[in-house]
């Protein structure tokens, strides 16, 4: 320091007296003491005369302080635009680095805000602590409060507390506290600006090879046919489903086996090579659903006839021993005449019926050793092209045979079943009828299809949305008169009828004549059955070719599809009693019309699936034979045939890989934007309207201790020393008097006067 000041002792001259000046001569320049050039007296320069003209309020808002405050607001506004545009979401980081990236981003944003805060305080503190000296006179306590409150948030809060107990600069204390709280809030919000949550990144792989799930209709056309495109109908085609029908039996049981491309009544495309990835890849593929509608067949008349008896010996083994029981039975021809269609249709089947009261309740040996109850009657004139199917269910109306029951519709109605009555030796003088407890339900079904797109798991080829097992059935299946679909086209529906016919589907065992003395398998041609001789009038066991063709048309061994339908509706066979009757598992029984529709739809899907993927469908084209060729017995026309081959396609695989996506924390961003706007408004007020607006009038360059001590404040010191200074409140009261600077001296206003 260039001058020494007296102690805080009261002076004798005036209030507090005049100060005793040091021997060294000083002069003041802008409130700073320097030695005088003439060495006689102190020269105090009048700072008011040297002060520049007052700046306009707008001119005071141009400078580094405003630039820093505006910079903070611009930074937050820019982040708001980034958030609105969603630009930050385009930045992705590895999932394993997401947490680390989030920490570094928030640390960097906090350091940037910390740098701004440090710079703002560094430029604002000298201005605000120096500015009270440019707006005198003020209370000494007021000057002290304004200087001390700018030491930081803690000092401003403490100063606010003191002003609440002894108000001097309450508004300034509130302003300063809000300013530092706003600045601190910006520091906090900047630490939570960014989040890096885990999201699924979408990666699309185009042109991935697929295997088409539906049989190719263009593949139905054998090579060599002079056709352009698919013909409008399949009239000249014959579909052989023998090998495709083998897979139908695999649908029984708990259906635990998964077949890629097959689910309930749906067949769908699959990826040729599944994707090996842990990123949950999916693909959109095409599918075909099969829907079956069944009901009672209108305009039906039935008859059952037999011309012979035969005896089967049943070996019984129980606690009484082993013995044989002769069972008198008849091979019965069942005829179903359907006359309501545009052309009359007659269907045939042959079954074995017991003639005594005990065995006619048994329906398990109608086609021994098979336990089928649902049969598809046959007619050689039936075309393999069509969308309709007629079948029948035979059951015991007494309900005493396990698994034998009527098929009920959604209204628990059995429809109008036919009572099975056998006409023995018809058209003879000794004809008579045999009543049985058997009933027959004749059922007609039609097929429709629907197509669409579905998502599959690209790693397993499984459907993400699996259709229920009952989806192929109608919503409300009732017996109402069945309306056959007589339309013809070149769709998959038109290849359906042959799938279940005896001549186009696989049997449960080989279909050859039984020549054993006592066959255990029901044959389609059995020379042992005398009804054949009686029916056709043959002798010595000989038949013409026409007679054999007729037998072949009317009798067939049980098929895989018949066994499948029986098991689906009535449950699996668990045991047989000594008479051959079956015991079925009732827990798996669902003898409803809807269950029959669902079973047919699932069987259709399995056969179509096998045909499309395993080359199991053979299609034969029958050439149009001219009349001349037909009359020429030496001419032979070779039919063209083909095996439907699998077809490939392509699709896109969509992978969802977890990655870290940078997003802005909206609450922190909005809070920070509001705080930066408030901080800018406070800065503008402080610079333009507060004490800082008179900053050019201050006699000192800053409010530091050395700068303040450059003023002669001995009178103030003497006055304060006369008061009690024991506590903060007392000191604040002691300083509650106006002061100003006169000739480089900080004096009370009354002393200046």
Please characterize this protein's 3D structure.
By secondary structure, the protein is α+β, with helices and mostly antiparallel strands. The protein folds into two domains: 56-196 and 664-752; 237-269 and 295-451 and 470-646, no CATH class. Helix content is 28%, strand content 25%. The strands form six sheets. It has a 16-stranded mixed sheet that branches. Strands 2-1-3 form a three-stranded mixed sheet, with no helix packed on it. Helix 3 (64-85) runs antiparallel to helix 4 and helix 7 (170-189) runs antiparallel to helix 14.
Contiguous low-pLDDT stretches (5 residues minimum) are 1-56, 527-531
Content of β-strand: 15-25%
- Percent helix range: 25-40%
Query: How does the helix and strand content classify structurally?
Result: alpha+beta
How many domains in all?
A: 2
Describe the global form: rod-shaped
> Biggest β-sheet, characterized?
16 strands, mixed
Number of strands: 29
The average pLDDT is 78
Task: Output the number of helix runs.
Answer: 18
The radius of gyration computed from the alpha-carbon positions, rounded to a whole number of angstroms, is 53 Å
Distance between the termini: 29 Å
């Amino acid at each position: 320091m260039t001058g020494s000041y007296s102690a805080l002792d009261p002076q004798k001259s005036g209030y507090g007296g005049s100060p005793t000046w040091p021997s060294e001569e000083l002069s003041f320049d802008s409130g700073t003491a320097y030695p005088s050039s003439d060495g006689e007296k102190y020269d105090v320069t009048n700072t008011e005369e040297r002060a520049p003209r007052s700046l306009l309020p707008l001119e005071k808002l141009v400078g580094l302080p405003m630039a820093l405050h505006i910079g903070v607001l611009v930074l937050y506004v820019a982040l708001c635009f980034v958030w609105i545009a969603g630009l930050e979401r385009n930045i992705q980081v590895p999932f394993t680095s997401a947490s680390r990236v989030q920490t570094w981003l928030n640390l960097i944003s906090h350091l940037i805000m910390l740098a701004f805060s440090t710079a703002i305080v560094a430029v604002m503190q000298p201005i605000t602590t120096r500015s009270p000296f440019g707006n005198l006179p003020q209370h000494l306590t007021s000057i002290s409060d304004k200087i001390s409150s700018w030491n930081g948030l803690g000092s401003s809060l403490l100063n606010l507390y003191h002003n609440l107990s002894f108000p001097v600069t309450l508004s300034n204390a509130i302003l300063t506290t809000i300013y530092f709280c706003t600045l601190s809030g910006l520091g906090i919000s900047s630490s939570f600006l960014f989040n890096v949550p885990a999201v699924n990144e979408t990666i699309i792989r185009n042109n991935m090879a697929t295997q088409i799930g539906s049989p190719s209709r263009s593949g139905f056309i054998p090579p060599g046919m002079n056709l352009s495109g698919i013909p409008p109908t399949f009239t000249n085609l014959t579909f052989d489903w023998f090998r495709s029908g083998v897979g139908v039996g695999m649908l029984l049981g708990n259906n635990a086996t998964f077949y890629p491309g097959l689910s309930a009544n749906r067949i769908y495309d699959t990826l040729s090579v599944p994707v090996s990835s842990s990123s949950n890849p999916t693909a959109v593929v095409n599918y075909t659903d099969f829907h079956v509608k069944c009901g009672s067949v209108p305009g039906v008349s039935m008859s059952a006839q037999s011309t012979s008896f035969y005896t089967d010996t049943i070996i019984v083994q129980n606690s009484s021993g082993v013995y044989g029981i002769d069972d008198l039975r008849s091979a019965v021809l069942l005829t179903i005449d359907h006359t309501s269609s545009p052309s009359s249709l007659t269907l045939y089947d042959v079954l074995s019926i017991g003639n005594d009261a005990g065995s006619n309740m048994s329906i398990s040996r109608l086609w021994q050793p098979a336990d089928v109850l649902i049969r598809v009657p046959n007619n050689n004139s039936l075309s393999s092209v069509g969308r309709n199917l007629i079948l029948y269910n035979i059951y015991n109306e007494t309900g005493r045979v396990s698994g034998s029951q009527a098929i009920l519709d959604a209204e628990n109605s059995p429809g109008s079943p036919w009572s099975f009555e056998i006409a023995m030796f018809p058209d003879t003088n000794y004809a008579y009828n045999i009543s049985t407890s058997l009933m027959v339900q004749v059922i007609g079904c039609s097929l429709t299809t629907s197509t669409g797109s579905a998502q599959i798991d690209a790693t397993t080829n499984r459907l993400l949305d699996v259709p229920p097992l009952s989806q192929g059935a109608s919503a409300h299946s009732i017996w109402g008169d069945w309306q056959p679909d007589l339309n013809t086209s070149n769709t998959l529906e038109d290849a359906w009828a042959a799938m279940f016919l005896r001549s186009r589907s696989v049997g449960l065992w080989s279909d050859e004549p039984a020549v054993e003395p006592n066959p255990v398998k029901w044959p389609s041609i059995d020379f042992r059955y005398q009804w054949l001789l009686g029916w056709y009038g043959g002798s010595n066991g000989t038949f013409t070719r026409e007679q054999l063709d007729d037998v072949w048309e009317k009798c067939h061994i049980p098929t895989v599809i018949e066994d499948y339908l029986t098991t689906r509706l009535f449950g699996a066979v668990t045991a047989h009693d000594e008479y051959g009757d079956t015991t079925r598992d009732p827990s798996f029984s669902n003898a409803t019309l809807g269950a029959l529709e669902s079973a047919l739809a699932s069987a259709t899907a399995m056969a179509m699936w096998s045909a499309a993927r395993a080359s199991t469908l053979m299609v034969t084209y029958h050439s149009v034979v001219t009349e001349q060729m037909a009359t020429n017995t030496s001419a032979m026309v070779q039919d063209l045939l083909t095996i439907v081959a699998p077809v490939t396609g392509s699709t896109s695989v969509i992978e969802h890989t977890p990655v870290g996506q940078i997003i802005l924390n909206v609450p922190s961003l909005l809070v920070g934007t509001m705080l930066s706007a408030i901080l800018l408004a406070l800065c503008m007020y402080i610079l333009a309207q507060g004490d800082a607006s008179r900053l050019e009038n201050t006699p000192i360059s800053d409010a530091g201790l050395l700068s303040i001590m450059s003023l002669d404040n001995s009178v103030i010191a003497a006055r304060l020393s006369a008061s009690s200074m024991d506590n903060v409140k007392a000191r604040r009261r002691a300083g509650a008097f106006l002061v100003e600077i006169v000739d480089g001296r900080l004096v009370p206003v009354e002393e200046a006067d």
